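>> received
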Amino acid sequence: MAKRWNWLGGFLLIVLMVLCAGEARSEFPERNITLIVAWEAGGPVDLVTRALAVGAEKHLGKPLVIENKGGGGGTVGLSVIANAAPDGYTLCATPNVSVVDTPIMQKMTFRPLGSFSPILGHSLAEHTALLVKSDAPWKSFREFIEYAKKNPGKIKYSSAGIGSGMHVAMEVIARKEGVKWVHVPYKGAAPATTALLGGHVDACSAGIGWQVHGKSGAVRALADHGKKRGPDFPEVPTLWELGYGFSNETIHAIVGPAGLPPDVMKKLEEAFRKGMETPEFKTAQEKLYLTPAYYDSKAYGKHLKERWPSMEKILIDAGVVKEAATKPE
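>> returned
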C-alpha cells in the first residue's frame, strides 16, 4: 500500500510540475526584453523602432530595452540574434536587405533563411536616392554618370553599409554603365548622409529621411530608388524608369532567433502590431518618409524566401556576384 501511495504521490508531483511549467510559460514575458537595433543610434531604423516599442511594451507589460549594434549592413546585430536563446527575450530590428541582400554579397556565419523567426514587417522604405550637394556641378543623373565614366575612381560615394539597398543600387549602376567609383560604407543612413553634407564624399546613395535635406536645399537628388517617383520630389526620375531594372524594396521588420515557441511568437507579433497603431509610431513613419506596411510573421517569412532567389538573380545578372556568398538555409 505504501509503495502504491508513493507511486501516486510521485505521479501527482510530475503532473503539478507540468501544469506549473505551462502556467509559467503562459506568463511571457516575465522580465525585460532586449531589442537590438542593428543600425546606428539616431538613424531611421533606430527612430522608427523606438516609436514602435512605445505601444508594444504597453501590450507586453514589460519594457523593451533597446541596444544599438550597428555595422555590417545590419548583420552584426543579426549575428547576435542568431546565437541567442529562442525564448523571446532577445529580438532584432533590421530590414529585409540585411537578412537577404548582404549575405548574398558577403559570407555570413548565420543561415539567412534558417537562423531567424520572422515576427513582423512594419514599414516600407521606398524612396531612397542618389544625392549630391546642391552646389555640385552635376545637375542630372546623366551628367553624373558621364563624369564618372570619364574619371574612373574619382567619385567617392557613401552608403549605409555593404549590402544595403543603397549600396546594391550603386553596384547595379556601375556594372551596367561600366563605371568605377569608390564606395565608402558607414554604419547607417544618418552618418552616410552627414558625410556628404560635410564634403567628405562626392555623392551619397542615401537612406530614407534624405528628403529633409532635399527640402532645405542642402542636397540635390539625381535618381530615386523607388519603382515609382516619390510624392515629395516628383521631378526626380527613378532608376527603374531609367532602365536599370532595379527598385529598392526595403521592409523594416522585427525578427527573433529561430525556434521561438508558437505562443511567444503570437504574443510578440500581436504586441508589435499594437505598437503600429499608436500616434507615436504613425508620426515617426511620416517624419521619416516611410510608407505604412504590414506583414505578419507568415507573410514576412514568405517575403524573405521569395526575395532570396529574386535578389540573387539580380546581383548575378548585374555582375555584382558570381554566386551567393552565403547558403540561405
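>> The radius of gyration is 23 Å.
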